[in-house]
Amino acid sequence: MVHFVGAGPGAPDLITLRGAKLLEEADVIIYAGSLVNPALLDRAKEGCRIRNSAQMTLEEVVEEIVAAEKEGKTTVRLHTGDPSIYGAIREQIDQLEARGIPYDVTPGVSSFCGAAAALGAEYTLPEVSQTVIISRMAGRTPVPAKESIPALASHGATMVLFLSTGLLEGLQAQLMEGGYQADSPAAIVYKATWPDEKVFRCTVGTLAKTAADHQITKTALILVGGFLGDTYERSKLYDPTFTTEFRKGVE
Ligand code: SAH
Q: Which residues contact 56 (CB under 8 A, 6 or more apart)?
């Protein structure tokens, strides 16, 4: 059996209770060493075989799992944040299905949630944006043309950009091409929830400079949108005049 587990964004106590239990029971742990906090591996039981997937190909990961299965062992495949976001789990799942190896997935706290927490921010402010666009700049991994940054930026919705910290000159130009202004609010959150977390509030026009000034080149999220600004409407849910299933509003 293989358990895909979301490790959370960094802080070792942000893994789920279920994920922690699976880690403690695993005979084999294959972890994404580029981003998973190694402190999580302290949970491994004695004799657990631990492999860092940062130095492995998909084929090698599958080989490791197949070997564990042959010995009747349980594998945890530990991914950073939540495995569903840029986790490359689909290609692993397809390999397991082809071999009849059972698996399940335990979600994790994605870094985009960790970044909002670091900012004390709400992505979905009434009358500002009710949509969160999660995307990335095209780099060595291409992005479908319909999902270009200018096309996505044209919605004016909240944007969370992964895997783009090395491409900020291009990113800010493309955000502006899509309709953001140079003074539209933006932020860079480096290593959200890690002990060395850093939060920089800036504008779309100063994203590249802000990162350069603070030597931020990786492990960061770029956040863009009016949710980082000062104006919004209060929620209907907690409005005294608004009636809900649970509370009668005053006239
Ligand atoms: N599955 C992960 C994302 C993996 S892609 C998740 O749900 O968070 C790797 C990218 O995620 C990094 O390049 C960076 O953009 C972002 N990232 C991962 N952990 C981060 C953290 N703690 N703080 C800021 N960005 C992070």
A: 30, 64
Nearest-atom index, ligand 1, CA of 34: 9
Contacts 24+ apart (CB under 8 A), 212-219: 214/190, 216/165, 216/188, 216/190, 217/165, 217/166, 218/165, 218/166, 219/35, 219/165, 219/190, 219/191
Q: Tell me if residue 47 falls in helix, strand or coil.
A: coil
Residues of the chain with confidence (pLDDT) below 70: none
Exposed/middle/buried for 216, CB within 10 Å: 0-12, 13-18, 19+?
buried
- Listed in sequence order, the residues at least 6 apart from 152 whose beta carbon sits closer than 8 Å to its beta carbon are 133, 135, 159, 178
What tens digit of pLDDT does each residue of 88-105 get?
Answer: 999 999 999 999 999 999
pTM, full prediction = 0.95
40 contacts 15 by C-beta, under 8 angstroms? yes
Count of Cβ atoms closer than 10 Å to residue 122 Cβ: 14
At 233 the pLDDT is 87
Using CB distances shorter than 6 Å, the residues near ligand 1 are 9-10, 35, 79-82, 85-87, 110-111, 114-115, 162-163, 189, 191-194, 219-221
Find the 218 Cα to ligand 1 centroid distance in Å. 9
